[in-house]
Amino acid sequence: MSATRRLQKELGDLKNCGVKAYENVECEETNLLKWTVLLLPDKEPYNKGAFKVGITFPVDYPFKPPKVAFETKIYHPNVDEEGKFCLPIVTAENWKPATKTEQVMMALLSLINEPEPNHPIRADVAEEFQKDHKKFMKTAEEHTRKHSEKRPE
Amino acid sequence: MTDDDRETQLFELEALESVLRENKLTKTSDWTNKNAVIEGIIEVGFDSISDPKVTIEGTSETGENFSLSFDILPPVRLKFRLPADYPSVSSPILELESDWMNQEQMTTCEAELVKICEDNLMMGVLYLCYQAIIDLIDQLPTRVIKLNEANVLNKNGGSIDSLKKKILGKGEEAAEEHFVNTLFDCEVCYDSFMGHNCIKFQPCAHVFCKSCTFDYYRSMAKGVVSKAMQCLAEGCKSEAQENIVKEALGDELYAKYEVTLVEKAIREMADSVECPRENCQKVAYVTDRWVFMHLKNHRNFCFRQRNLAECSYCQFSFCNLCKQTFHGISGCKWKKGDKEKLVKQWQGDDEHIKADMCRQFGGEKHVEALVERFLNEEWLDSNSKPCPKCSVSIEKNEGCHKMHCTKCDTYFCWLCAAALDKVDPYKHFQGDGTCSGRLFEGVHNFFEEEEEGDDHLFEMAFDEGSDYESDDSVDFEIEDQLEEWLEREGHFDDGPDGMGDLEAGD
């Protein structure tokens, strides 16, 4: 499998990159194509928790993009109840073989830190975000407290 | 003169040759002949210079100013002649040749070479001289070279235009040679390759290994091609050179790729469809035609008819709705009930009926093809939706409702079939519209379902290209029905639904 070498290196790089934004980069013991990453947003209201992200690589990676989705519930205008979101960098039409998982993670992180209420997936949340920001912050914080993972010490 | 000197000279040259790259040391005399003086040329290249981007400026004979950019300076030549008593007594006789150095640079370099020879008497100095030239050029205060001041022009005369041409060629040669001999890390496979196993894209200058580039293009070409092959870097829009794609795909796949791109370009242009003849499938044009009719009540009537299509290649004229031979304004031959009946009969047990069908349609093969087509259409009707722009049938097997037609690069909404804004297709799912907030409605979790990564969407490029139901066509028993309708409606301004193109004349 041609993807192995690249995935191993990317996994190593991601584990050791020293960026505080994500931790616990792991892949399934028997399957290098399935990873989980713990995303640590640094902006309110998500900076109190950690969010698990699942990454599934296709067998012909890196010629086809990985699939990325949240496994932890998150209250966010751009993420739906099942953890799915639209990230241009990993769509079939935009994907480039040189795109790194780290870049994908950074793109996702910036989407989480800076919601795009003008391109929402959950219109209700986006509306709340724009029209009643205070309420949004409160709901999102509570949601984060209730559903998110613990941030590693 | 001693044999020792000769031996030292040959030894020095051997060492020099092993330090320099191939072909950089040229013999201009016979070194094996003990009686001949050793002569040669060292080509001094500048591909090791830290920031080698150089601009060469000048004014051509016609008075035009030019400015050329180089990645690497064209090499200069160091000619040497070794007297028989070099290095024990004499210094070598050196001469510098350059297409672009000006008088001052030339003088500085030559003075430095003389100094090196004087400082290193009784020693081999060729390598020191070679290195000194590189260091001197590296320290040039400016990276702009004024070609009109070139020393070689003053010395030998000659035209600046031919010199410019020569330098351009040399610069490219030097850059190419440098590329071929440099080690690159491929950002896709994380392996290292020499330049000759790599592809350098232009104008972005990104470099990837041939193997990854070719694998990527083959993988793209085997799927649905929607745009020209690009550089592999994230967000980079540089297009690959034709010969590279050709080499990657091989003749057969490349021909297919090329046709797809050309057809796509044509499709984006005019009202064009695919010729329905299986052996042709080239581009056909739908013609706008005005039909004039003389009605019973002595009124003239004309309307616009757009279902006539003609193949540009085989000249087949067909109805764009049912894809059969053009049948004027009479209705398409196949009605929904007919199709179902035929399929049922063919799948049934009555051999007599089947034999009849074979006679009617010219053999079992044809009936089978026909039945298969009907089944396909049926399946497509219930499982796929046509792209609102090019009508290709698209099946959605996962992901959100923002669809992307890879055939014509149109975004559309799976829920309401509206074509979406190219820049911001998600806008459609916001605001107060009917599809607002429904981007992922009813989409189940793809992680649990799918093991292998397929395309974001799987597209059925359907052979017949027909997504039409014959019922939608302008289908009427011409005059009587028209007459009836005109009377019933009592006006000629606009047609009823489904006949929007019908217009009335006087």
Automatic annotation (TrEMBL), chain A:
The protein's Enzyme Commission number: 2.3.2.23
One Pfam family cited in the UniProt record for this chain: UQ_con
Keyword hit for S-adenosyl-L-methionine: no
Entries under InterPro entries matching the protein: Ub_conjugating_enzyme, UBC, UBQ-conjugating_enzyme/RWD
Superkingdom of the organism of origin: Eukaryota
GO molecular function, one term: ubiquitin conjugating enzyme activity
Keyword DNA repair set for record: no
This protein's UniProt keywords: Transferase, Ubl conjugation pathway
Protein name: E2 ubiquitin-conjugating enzyme
Organism: Caenorhabditis remanei (Caenorhabditis vulgaris)
The gene coding this protein: ubc-18
UniProtKB/TrEMBL annotation, chain B:
The keyword Repeat is annotated on this UniProt entry: yes
Any one Pfam family match given in the protein's UniProt record, by short name: IBR_1
PROSITE patterns: RWD, TRIAD, ZF_RING_2
Name of the top EC class for this enzyme: transferase
EC number: 2.3.2.31
Sequence segments annotated as region (Disordered): 486-506
Full protein name: RBR-type E3 ubiquitin transferase
